[in-house]
Fold these 4 entries.
Entry 1:
Amino acid sequence: MIVRNLQLVRDRMTTACVAAGRSPADVRLLAVSKKFGPEAVISAVEGGQRAFGENYIAEGVEKILALRAWQAAQPQKLDSLLEWHCIGPVQSNKTRLVAEHFDWVQSVDRLKIAQRLSEQRPPHLPPLHICLQVNLDGGTNKSGVTPAELTALVQAVAGLPHVCLRGLMTIPEPAADFEAACALHAKARAVFDQINQSGVLASPMDTLSMGMTADLEAAIHSGSTMVRVGTAIFGSR
Ligand SMILES: *Cc1c(COP(=O)(O)O)cnc(C)c1O
């Protein structure tokens, strides 16, 4: 079921890319496995998926360790390692766990959290990949830096030693239809392009993480480079 669902999501992504005149290679799929157990992740790995998103840190770390043990027990090595993205709120007292176990954090919206993640990243690991969560619609989902505060945060995070600023992440409010969803995502794309073109970064950001089960077509239409999909792969939570 999960393997078939994954294929359906990839087909949706390819169709959306073709419709938008984009290359399917330019949009990555993050499988959001929150609230599903390690067996579900293993099924997705067997279906070829390598990147997974988790919202809840303790649950995510437990799954990361379970999958590491599973991988170690496999007779054949996987063609590539699993990649774990933290996509939920990170409190100060959880930064160490995140820095020690995850590969990416997409939900950074304060400098203090980014500083702690950089300080606590173990030296034997590569830099932690960071996306800044931006709140563009001021919606009830209150996490996320405002566009007005974004440039200063981008500059500060880009200067930290043990993290690598990769891009922006947004979770827009649900939209009424395709056009409305595209308009919201286009706003995020405009902010992303504006920062990249402003010259504040030595190297441009390459990741615009937006689009979920309900709106991945609109997100891809508007320039997403990574969609985060849970329900359409693993079922409803
Ligand atoms: C749960 C979640 C998703 C996946 O949502 P679906 O609608 O199940 O695809 C994506 N991004 C974030 C930040 C989430 O919390």
Entry 2:
Amino acid sequence: MYNRIYNFSAGPSMLPLPVLEQARDDMMNYQGSGMSVMEMSHRSKVYDAIIKQAEADLREVMNIPDNYKVMFLQGGASMQFANVAMNIMKTGKADYIVTGQFSGKAYKEAQKFGDAHLAATTKEENFTRIPRQEELDLRPDADYVHICFNNTIFGTKWDYIPDTGDVPLVADMSSCILSEPVDVTKFGLIYAGAQKNVAPAGLTIVIAREDLLREDLDKAVPTMCNYATMAENESMYNTPPCYPIYICGLVLNWIKNLGGLEAMKKINEDKAAMLYDCLENSKLFSNPNDKASRSMMNVTFRAEDDEINAKFVKEATAAGFANIKGHRSVGGMRASIYNAMPTEGVAALCEFIKKFEAENL
Ligand SMILES: *Cc1c(COP(=O)(O)O)cnc(C)c1O
């Protein structure tokens, strides 16, 4: 009806069609307010209801306990690389597990603020797997352990939650938040840029255990980077990213209507299984990662011959499969199949892979 194509972009990425339609219907006059959500004061009563409902729905959908604060911030996940260090590095020691590019960036940023220790990495294996518990060199006196739960570029995901003892676990969930249930109580802090699975770019969600937040940070820490201040002001210390928060609310409503995160997980598992099965049966393409560490959201694949990879990207793009080229650091292809990618999109891609293979093998 709209001539939409299947967009496999790693982010910003597809949004659910019913969400876009609702946003369209609300665009000119939101619920009789006479204006668009984009145009209203963030201090207005009508907007207050939007942000409060979005937080309530996030708490309900993710089953977030009351002793956790929810913050709607800006700056992206990349800003949190610094914010986490500035806020949670109380004694100046933190452990980092590097499983890809973003966790590497977080580790590097933390070194500006204190003693960031590399507790494990799979860099030597080109990040094709998640390290096992016994490989983690964790320090019992660290202020936190940082991981990236789903590695967007390399297409791997933690298949277990590492045991960090009494040390709080901090996780970047930018590319897997809301894709399946997670036990929030296992984490001290979770953060996620919204543009992959939650909303348009501009919103960053931070979920933090109350006892980890403190006002008495180093004097040089900007007020805008102080989680305690942001939480105390209910994300309204300054103007929040109003429109992405509103879309986040619509997305949460869409997930609730599907049956919540258990139902979402089932759909995502089925989509990922379909694509991984297709790759396992392929004589041309393969996925380089350990089976246990496979991402449900970002599926990488490639042929041995780079000319074939380039040909595939060109023909797939022409056939309406957008943004299928792999990240420059990995090569080959990557299909990001977030919540909003319909099952038909994955099925169509599998058909295309088979057709391409028949023509090129
Ligand atoms: C996309 C992504 C980031 C970067 O997010 P920005 O919002 O652009 O800063 C960080 N971590 C992960 C896991 C990502 O997927």
Entry 3:
Amino acid sequence: MRSLALSFALLAAGSSAVTAASAPTCAKGLYMVVARGTEEPAGTGVTGNLTSQIAAKVPGSQVVAVDYPATFDDYEGSEGKGVQDMQKLLNAYGQACPDNKIAILGYSQGAQVSSDSVCGGGGSPFIDDKALSTSIMDNVVAVAIFGDPSHVANLTYDRGTSVRDGIFNRTEASIDVCKSYSSRIISYCDTGDIYCDSGSNTTVHHLYIERYGDDIVNFVVSQYEKAVGSSSSNSSSTTTAPPTSSATASPTSGGSGGRTNSTTSGPTKSASASTSPKSAANALTPAAGSLIFGVGLLAVLSQML
Ligand SMILES: *[C@@H]1O[C@H](CO)[C@@H](O)[C@H](O)[C@H]1NC(C)=O
Ligand SMILES: *[C@@H]1O[C@H](CO)[C@@H](O)[C@H](O)[C@H]1NC(C)=O
Ligand SMILES: *[C@@H]1O[C@H](CO)[C@@H](O)[C@H](O)[C@H]1NC(C)=O
Ligand SMILES: *[C@@H]1O[C@H](CO)[C@@H](O)[C@H](O)[C@H]1NC(C)=O
Ligand SMILES: *[C@@H]1O[C@H](CO)[C@@H](O)[C@H](O)[C@H]1NC(C)=O
Ligand SMILES: *[C@@H]1O[C@H](CO)[C@@H](O)[C@H](O)[C@H]1NC(C)=O
């Protein structure tokens, strides 16, 4: 069994263009792959707040950060590298640990890295990445993202108050792939967010963990428990920790913060006045963006540290 897994891992390493990291260790709990937001220091960024809470509820979990620049500078190149590394990690893990469960989390640029990895690249101006294979996706129990600049409004897996698309386009083909996984995805975006909602409020983009952190944690944990409960005869092992909401005052997710009531309207992409990809990409250049992103993020981080 072990040697079989190992040979799969070697196979994966051999067939991958990029040198694969050392063969993954199969986690008893969840294997969580995290893509941080733009200009967060290397590691998991603020999303680590959530993965540590999840790991506390799913013993034996492993958290791995996507290794990519996460810069504004050459956003497209940075994002593309993120997709490459995320897919490399997931392919390697899926091959080596075909019976184990995976969760994907991403914030901001890292949310786009996640959605492009899962659904295929949004198209020009981004690298035309291919979606992860369905066999790898079979083990992905949850995709939890927030502040995705390629957010598509009014899909069933959308959460938060936004009813507008993000600043980057996503192709219909890519949206179709996303939809095929809709029961496993949650994508948070609130009205006003300068990236995922094409809005003008510079604060909103930094409030997701505070507003929805508990919901995201509970979603990932329950998806894991559902998957393990139904796919293994080992149900007694999953000590279902009741979702003890952390001592922190419960976030303002009540009322307006609920999920979008997705009416029948599909993702009608009125291409008309929407920002062209190029100018949208320019909106994320350091000049315009890093001030907003960087300063806001520092504020958030300093609050947290
Ligand atoms: C989403 O739905 C709302 C309410 O139906 C609508 O006003 C809005 O235009 C839709 N957004 C997009 C991008 O289609
Ligand atoms: C967005 O994508 C749609 C569907 O692929 C396309 O028709 C439209 O022209 C694109 N819009 C922009 C601004 O690139
Ligand atoms: C931005 O959003 C935050 C959070 O909802 C709100 O408190 C603030 O007043 C908004 N700022 C502006 C300029 O609308
Ligand atoms: C995680 O986020 C919550 C809500 O914003 C905050 O109260 C808590 O201090 C954060 N924990 C860490 C470890 O950053
Ligand atoms: C079954 O439960 C045991 C004890 O919690 C655990 O060590 C083991 O990994 C579980 N096996 C599976 C297949 O979930
Ligand atoms: C969505 O809107 C419909 C029609 O207004 C309503 O019947 C339904 O309860 C709403 N669902 C949610 C989840 O708010």
Entry 4:
Amino acid sequence: MGENHKKFEDLHRASGFINLNPLQRGGVLSDAARRVVPEWCDGYSVCDFCEGCLDRIKNPPVESFVHETLPEFLGTETARVTNGARESKFIVMHSLCEKGDCIVLDSNAHYTSYVAAERAGVEFFEVEKTGEPEYEILEDKYAEKIEGAKSKTGKPPKLALLTYPDGNYGNLPDAERVAKICHQYDVPLLLNCAYSVGRMPISAKKLGADFIVGSGHKSMAASGPVGVLGTSSEYAEVLFRKSEKYKIKEVELLGCTSRGLPIITLMASFPAVVERVKNWGEEVEKARKFSKQMENLGMQQMGQRPHNHDLMFFAAPIFFEISNRHKKGRFFLYKELKDRGIVGIKSGLTKHFKMSTYQLTGEEIERVVSAFTEISKL
Ligand SMILES: *Cc1c(COP(=O)(O)O)cnc(C)c1O
């Protein structure tokens, strides 16, 4: 071993910027969670009083969180904490499907839905979206796609998945309607709520979903990696079946999932998350107002309009045009924003980019709008 590895001792991250990255806006810890971080950051810190089942640990109160709080919050009969939304999806696909089975999903689905399907060895059929600028999933197409999958493979799909909202445009399809259609064909529905659980009020029961999946580090103010998975008791037996050799360990969860700081921050932030969900209406208003201001500068917000989520996708021909003559080329937008204390738009993008106003203060939004205004005049 040389000396090169010593550099890892001195890792730091720039702070003090306004961050517009949709991926990171909902994962900022609550003050309460931040305070307890030093006590729980060592490996396996939650396991002091574990008797073999992570979700049965009473101190810290993982058991009541997993078995009482979380199902109530998700509107499900059972729930578990996982290592992420993708792990939750894989658990469902892997328990419900045999290799060679098929599922139906929306074409706005996140890449992790496709990769989870691939890992589970299942074929997928995609529900198309409408074209530019809305890119909407039409709920009724689920019927067509389920029938199509059935006639192509000779058997009905084992699962349908709806991304709610999707991570590109922030579109919220009518999930209740999709659930009804799927159930007419006896196909269970999984709602991928990586961008909604922890941001907006949402109940699997109300929407009629059989499975609901969330992401702690994306939308529940947790350091992560950590995710949540909720389902009805009907499917709980299949999903959370126990090992034959180790009678108390759940196979799909590989015995234990999130342990240590990820689950602690999820729990410690939870009271603040419950409160912020109540302010969802204000977040939507904020996003809509911001979208209008961006459009006044010559950009176009893609996806549903008026928009129903803080994640927004903009087409910005005006910035593309500037990038053609700016000395920093396509990196100009990133640099100009950073010079004004703003980060989170992917470096190198100008023509299209996504961003979020989630949890930004009025003053921060004003700074962002005036930065975009100045830059648009370059
Ligand atoms: C971010 C995201 C995921 C991945 O979440 P993880 O918790 O990191 O696995 C899945 N689906 C959507 C729609 C996302 O936006």
